[in-house]
Design goal:
The chain contains five helices and six strands; from the N terminus they run βααααβββββα. It is α+β, with helices and mostly antiparallel strands and 120 residues long. It has one domain. Strands 1, 2, 3, 4, 5 and 6 form a six-stranded mixed β-sheet that branches. A hairpin with a 2-residue loop joins strand 3 and strand 4. The longest helix has 16 residues. The termini are far apart.
């Protein structure tokens, strides 16, 4: 699976164990599990979900068509799903085997977005 992080601040956070630990030890561990599973579990989102450590959340009513939320513990990672050619996957929660790429849009800990915390 290909994972990208278009936001430079969020990319730096996800790449730094020290910064992740500032979110709290349990949150840092949950983030590392999600990222580890995304990078190591296989080529599609279905492969990632197969082991059960990461779960997919049902989309909220106003969610963009190709957005997906993945959770582990108290952490929810939001991303835009794409297929192997980089094209958006509509309703990725219904077709995880079509999702080969994720562009991480946000990370929430305990229901609070880290991007909104950084901005405010």
């Amino acid at each position: 699976m290909i994972v990208t992080v278009p936001n430079p601040w969020l990319e730096a956070l996800l790449a730094s164990a020290a910064l992740l630990t500032q979110l709290g030890p349990a949150a840092a561990e949950d983030v590392m599990v999600i990222l580890g599973m995304l990078l190591l579990a296989g080529t599609t989102l279905a492969d990632v979900l197969r082991n059960g450590l990461v779960r997919m959340l049902a989309p909220a009513p106003a969610t963009a068509e190709s957005q997906i939320s993945l959770a582990c513990g108290q952490v929810v990672l939001s991303a835009v799903a794409a297929d192997r050619h980089g094209e958006p996957v509509p309703a990725p929660h219904l077709q995880p085997s079509d999702v080969w790429r994720l562009a991480v849009a946000d990370l929430a800990v305990g229901g609070i977005s880290v991007l909104s915390q950084a901005a405010g």
